[in-house]
Amino acid sequence: MNDRRQRIDGGALVGGLLLIGLGSLFLLDRLHVADFGDLVGTYWPLIIVAIGVPKLFHPRTVWSGLWLMAIGVWLQAVRLHWYDLTYGNSWPLLLIALGAGMVLRTFFESTARREADVPREGRHGS
Q: DSSP letters along 28-71, please?
């Protein structure tokens, strides 16, 4: 019996659900059933965060997912004026996030390479 499990593409699933949700909001807004213009205008950066979340579940795209989420959170913080942040006074936060991401990525990748170089018998003391 062939018991192969099909993997679901999380990015396509989240992307599709996001498009359905946004399309529904815009349709309701256009039909004058509800007013979502201000809501979407205020919270649009969360779309970028939502695009980054499924990337966290694939080893090859973890860092791009974290970067998308960092940009989305920064844009949302500026949009909501958290701690009086504006685009002009908060752009150094992106440099800090980029630098921290580079340092963490280098650390984790070098640790993973070292673990891959250690023979299996040496890992568990066998």
A: HHHTTSS--HHHHHHHTHHHHHHHHGGGGGSGGGHHHHHHHHHH
Distance CA 58, CA 80 (A): 31
DSSP state for residue 27 in the 8-state scheme: H
Q: Per-residue b/e over 58-89, b at no fewer than 16 CB within 10 Å?
A: eeeeebebbbbbbbbbbbbebbeeeeebeeee
Q: How do residues 50-84 score in pLDDT, each as one tens digit?
A: 888 888 888 888 888 999 999 999 999 999 999 99
Give 3-18 pLDDT, tens digit per residue: 567 777 767 787 788 8
Rounded average pLDDT over 77-95: 92
In sequence order, which residues have a C-beta less than 8 Å from that of residue 123 and are 6 or more positions away?
115
